[in-house]
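queue> pop job 88
queue> type: inverse folding (structure -> sequence)
queue> payload:
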């Protein structure tokens, strides 16, 4: 009976995900708030139907009451968050909020499928992230004129956190990545430092665009990257580097900086290849994983086998064997999703992430103040390149880097930092709406006063003519 339900449900799951994704882009064709809200409402309904269906399958598979408790708590968190967030922030972008919750729901479901105990931890961290995100727009609203004053605090604080990890951090998969807190949770500061580095760069460029300022900013950003390289956290170092190069280009509009940046990056990659054995191993595995099929090549080969086995519609939830992929709940959760929920579902997830990225970039172009324009663009770059590096690594387009998929992968630090980025963009979006509304009111008042003066002048002229 379970096998039949899994086989049938895989088509239903793909259909629901595909319909949700189509509505995601159909939303932009709506011109009125009523039309947009109706699309968001349908998307929410599809998300809850999908969550219920997958939870039923997981409960039937594990026959564990904890799965039902997990589903009920997750459902309540989503419903409360969808109601509370727009209630607190009337101008909130509900469409972007929906997409974030949809991705988190899929991620939690696959984590519960792979390792239920870790899924329960992730749910706790989701609640923390949701509460933090509720505060971020309010902080931006009240401190928007002061955030760029703490530029050096962002730079020095972030560099100190990365150095502490280098010296005292716990080693995972050959890299110094995190601090362990009483064996319950691990904190990965590099996830938060992604945000502080962007704020530092934006603050420096907001103050001045002189060559000396650019050199100092580049030196501090390079120090961040070098500490990460020394910690062997190459994926995050790559994200930092690429994001900085693009931020520098947007701030200066000088393409020579991009050429110089990628030239130095290419040279550094060659040097790292010859200096660090782990870099050579990753490159060799990427070029030919078959040479070490039982060792370093096992992870990427199992990822490719899983996606190939799943095909377009997947094996069905609980119908595959994604657990054979090492750390499938983290770096390779995209492969696990594709194996059981289908490559179509995987493509839809990437499209939804792309939609969020486009929204982020659009908000960055909307900003007028240099600090917020660079901040928004830098965070969008961090978000976008994290998606690209993760997905490309899973399908063997680039060497493996140990980068998570935003909102979907297991990892509390990654989830909280990504939610923080989401909160920043919501805050920027709402601040801009408030500014535009105030500007429209001011223009309307000026127009009304001008019309009143003209009317009074006409009346005076008529009275003079009558006299």
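queue> result:
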């Amino acid at each position: 009976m379970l096998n039949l339900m899994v086989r049938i449900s895989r088509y239903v799951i793909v259909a629901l995900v595909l319909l949700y994704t189509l509505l995601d882009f159909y939303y932009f064709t709506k011109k009125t708030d009523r039309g947009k809200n109706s699309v968001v409402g349908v998307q929410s309904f599809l998300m809850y139907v999908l969550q219920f269906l997958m939870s039923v399958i997981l409960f039937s598979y594990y026959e564990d009451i904890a799965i039902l408790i997990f589903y009920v708590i997750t459902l309540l968190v989503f419903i409360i968050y969808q109601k509370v967030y727009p209630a607190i922030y009337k101008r909130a972008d509900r469409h972007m909020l929906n997409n974030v919750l949809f991705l988190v729901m899929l991620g939690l479901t696959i984590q519960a499928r792979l390792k239920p105990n870790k899924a329960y931890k992730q749910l706790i961290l989701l609640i923390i992230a949701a509460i933090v995100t509720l505060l971020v727009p309010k902080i931006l609203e009240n401190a928007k004129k002061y955030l760029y004053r703490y530029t050096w605090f962002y730079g020095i604080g972030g560099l100190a956190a990365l150095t502490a990890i280098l010296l005292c951090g716990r080693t995972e998969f050959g890299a110094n990545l995190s601090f362990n807190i009483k064996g319950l949770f691990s904190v990965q500061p590099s996830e938060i430092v992604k945000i502080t580095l962007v704020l530092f760069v934006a603050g420096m460029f907001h103050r001045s665009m002189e060559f000396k300022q650019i050199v100092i900013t580049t030196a501090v950003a390079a120090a961040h990257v070098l500490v990460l390289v020394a910690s062997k956290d190459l994926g995050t170092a790559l994200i930092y580097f690429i994001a900085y190069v693009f931020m520098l280009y947007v701030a200066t509009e000088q393409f020579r900086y991009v050429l110089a940046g990628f030239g130095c990056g290419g040279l550094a990659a060659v040097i790292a290849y010859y200096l660090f054995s782990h870099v050579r191993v990753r490159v060799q595995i990427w070029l030919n994983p078959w040479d070490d099929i039982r060792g370093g090549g096992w992870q990427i080969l199992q990822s490719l086998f899983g996606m190939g086995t799943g095909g377009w519609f997947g094996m069905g939830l609980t119908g595959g064997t994604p657990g054979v992929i090492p750390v499938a709940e983290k770096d390779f959760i995209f492969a696990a999703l594709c194996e059981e929920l289908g490559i179509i579902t995987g493509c839809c997830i990437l499209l939804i992430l792309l939609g969020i990225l486009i929204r982020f970039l659009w908000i960055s172009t909307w900003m007028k103040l240099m600090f917020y324009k660079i901040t928004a663009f830098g965070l969008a770059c961090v978000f976008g390149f994290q998606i690209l590096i993760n997905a490309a690594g899973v399908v063997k387009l680039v060497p493996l880097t140990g980068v998570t998929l935003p909102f979907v992968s297991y990892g509390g630090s990654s989830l909280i930092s990504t939610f923080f980025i989401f909160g920043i963009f919501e805050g920027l979006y709402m601040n801009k709406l408030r500014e535009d509304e105030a500007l429209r009111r001011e223009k309307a008042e000026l127009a009304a006063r001008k019309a009143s003066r003209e009317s009074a002048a006409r009346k005076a002229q008529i009275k003079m003519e009558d006299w």
